């Protein structure tokens, strides 16, 4: 059995082996390289990266606390399946965090960051016209990252990054849905215009609306069997 765990290797870094294993496993789960229900074998992972089983076991326990893996009745762990309730909950948390960050960013964002966001929208439009959808997805993510970084709160950014990763593997579905690309680009244009006017309340509402649309798309894709939660 060859599990799709990316970025795992036994190297000397400032982070502990437990943190290295935890972060790699977490990334593989959230990016969809490890599938819902897939069994995680402690001994195999330890052998794959050339370390003892202890840091792997510790990483499993941390992932269990985050509800990303579940303990199997007899022995070991498996990747936890997301439910529709999970989608609702996580998007609710993201809406609260990201809309607040966007409103703060509107008050602090410098002119050069506004200009960078404008360039992003221009590049996104060109990528759409060229049919380069992988680039569209990357630019979409870059837009949000640049926007939230202007909030000037490291703690808030850390929380946003933690939850935004949860639906990484669903990003193509968000933009490949009916007029998803165009709707996303229009949302971003509205956000930017509100930021130029230094209107934090409007920006906050627009971010919430944007995320609500994303949640509905994912729930619809799950209900119609095109996505596995």
Tally the structural domains. Answer: 2
The name of the CATH topology of the largest domain is Four Helix Bundle (Hemerythrin (Met), subunit A)
CATH architecture of the largest domain: Up-down Bundle
Distance between the termini: 23 Å
Strand content: under 5%
- Provide the spatial order of strands within the biggest beta sheet: 1-3-2
Helical/strand content category: mainly alpha
| Rg over alpha carbons | 19 Å
Q: What is the name of the CATH class of the largest domain?
A: Mainly Alpha
User: Overall mean pLDDT score?
Assistant: 87
Poorly predicted runs: none
| Biggest pleated-sheet summary | 3 strands, antiparallel
Helix content: 55-70%
List the topology elements:
Layout: H1 17-30, E1 39-40, H2 42-49, H3 53-65, E2 69-71, E3 77-79, H4 84-108, H5 111-130, H6 133-149, H7 154-164, H8 171-176, H9 180-196, H10 200-223
Antiparallel strand pairs: 1-3, 2-3
Helix pairs in contact: 1-3, 2-3, 4-7, 4-10, 5-6, 5-9, 9-10
């Amino acid at each position: 059995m060859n599990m799709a765990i990316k970025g795992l290797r036994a190297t000397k870094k400032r982070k502990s082996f437990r943190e290295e294993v935890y972060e790699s496993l977490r990334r593989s789960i959230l990016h969809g390289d490890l599938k819902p229900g897939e069994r995680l074998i402690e001994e195999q992972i330890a052998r794959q990266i050339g370390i003892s089983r202890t840091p792997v076991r510790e990483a499993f326990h941390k992932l269990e606390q985050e509800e990303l893996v579940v303990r199997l009745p007899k022995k070991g762990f498996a990747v936890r399946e997301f439910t529709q309730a999970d989608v609702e909950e996580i998007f609710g948390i993201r809406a609260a965090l990201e809309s607040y960050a966007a409103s703060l960013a509107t008050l602090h964002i410098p002119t050069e960051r506004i200009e960078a966001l404008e360039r992003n929208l221009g590049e996104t439009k060109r990528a759409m016209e060229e049919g380069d959808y992988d680039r569209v997805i990357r630019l979409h993510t870059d837009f949000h990252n640049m926007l939230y970084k202007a909030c000037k709160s490291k703690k808030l950014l850390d929380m946003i990054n933690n939850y935004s990763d949860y639906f990484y593997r669903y990003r193509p579905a968000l933009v490949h849905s009916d007029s998803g690309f165009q709707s996303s680009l229009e949302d971003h244009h509205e956000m930017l215009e509100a930021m130029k006017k230094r209107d934090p309340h409007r920006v906050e509402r627009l971010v919430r609306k944007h995320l609500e649309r994303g949640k509905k798309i994912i729930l619809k894709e799950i209900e119609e069997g095109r996505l596995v939660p």
